[in-house]
Write a structure and sequence with these properties.
15 helices; three-stranded antiparallel beta sheet; 6 strands; disordered C terminus; mainly alpha; 345 residues; disordered N terminus
């Protein structure tokens, strides 16, 4: 039995709440790692500054030395040597104690390695260039290279969930990839000449909240979900800047959402709806599929919203077929029909 069949409201909300908290923790960790490494810094690029690696990530040689000079390695080496010393070598022992120990270089965590790949891939996106496996291996320390596939997969998932970017293979044989905006959207919120990150992930999340609330979401409901992934109304985000300005101004100007005051409410309350550009560029099903990936569930877990999205897909398919049949050339005449907008009760 599916999630929504068990309990259309309680089970779904509780499950998604739990998933949101888990995803929020991961997003916060990745955001912190990216912010610490100055995600937009061009120093990341292999080849710059004599092929210096990403900021905060040791080079290949430094990474190996860091592992060998870790506290565990130093302790093991010291213990081994102490066993070999004899009581008659006091002078050598004194000299050995006086010698400086190798510097301890901490090994970056898996999260930091994921962030290093994301940093490189985001920079390539800004530069409108593909990224290769060879490029990515240059920002990983040797001990993590054998786990490249897993780290790469996680980085791709975070890029989609946090920034609304899909990683497409343009040359699978040579492991060459490019980043594109998800779901057919054309907005990334990046201003030319500025070092920033795509904000499409925030847009998709807002559209998703509106959709799961029946097409119209109270402002408090939107912020409740955003708070779970570390985005707060009165707090500047290290990657996305001023969230309130982004959601209530930028996305409104871009016509992706509508932000309006609820009538007859004191104090004043506001609500969000999909804007005309959202209806023109994407679909309910695409948004639900994206949310399902973020929450780690099947799209059908969204119950009535999923059924509504199916009806919307069928309506679009019929409209496309009708347009094709009516066109002399057999091609669709104009764009497919747009879904009717939902309104608050």
């Amino acid at each position: 039995m599916s999630l929504h069949q068990k309990n259309p409201q309680g089970s779904q909300s509780q499950h998604l709440q739990s998933c949101s908290e888990t995803q929020g923790l991961q997003a916060a960790q990745i955001s912190e790692a990216l912010a610490k490494s100055h995600v937009s810094s061009p120093r990341l690029m292999p080849g710059n500054s004599k092929e210096s690696p990403a900021a905060g990530v040791p080079s290949t040689r430094e990474g190996a030395q860091g592992f060998l000079s870790s506290p565990v390695a130093i302790t093991a080496t010291s213990s081994s040597r102490s066993g070999e010393r004899s009581s008659g070598h006091k002078e050598e022992e004194s000299t050995a104690r006086a010698a400086p120990r190798p510097a301890i270089v901490p090994i970056p965590s898996v999260r930091e390695q994921e962030a290093a790949l994301m940093k490189l891939m985001l920079l390539k996106y800004r530069m409108k260039e593909p990224v290769t496996k060879a490029d990515m291996l240059k920002v990983l320390i040797p001990v993590c290279e054998k786990h490249f596939s897993d780290i790469f997969l996680k980085a791709c998932q975070h890029l989609e969930g946090m920034f609304g970017l899909d990683v497409k293979a343009v040359d699978p044989r040579n492991h060459c990839y490019e980043l594109v905006i998800s779901m057919g959207l054309t907005y990334d919120g990046m201003l030319s000449g500025e070092e920033s990150v795509p904000k499409t992930g925030v847009l998709i999340l807002v559209l998703g909240v509106i959709l799961t609330k029946g097409g119209c979401a109270a402002e408090r409901e939107v912020w409740k979900v955003l708070n779970q992934v570390g985005i707060h109304a009165e707090r500047v985000h290290p990657l996305f800047g001023d969230p309130r300005e982004l959601i209530t101004n930028d996305l409104v100007k871009e016509k992706y959402v509508e932000y309006r005051q609820v009538a007859n409410r004191d104090p004043a309350q506001f609500e969000f709806l999909w804007g005309p550009r959202a209806y023109a560029e994407t679909t309910k099903m695409k948004v639900l599929q994206s949310l399902a990936k973020v929450y780690g569930v099947e799209p059908s877990a969204f119950g009535s919203q999923y059924e509504d999205a199916l009806r919307d897909e069928e309506k679009r398919a019929r409209a496309t077929m009708s347009a094709t049949a009516a066109s002399p050339s057999g091609a669709p005449a104009g764009s497919s029909a747009k879904s009717s907008r939902s309104s608050c009760p």
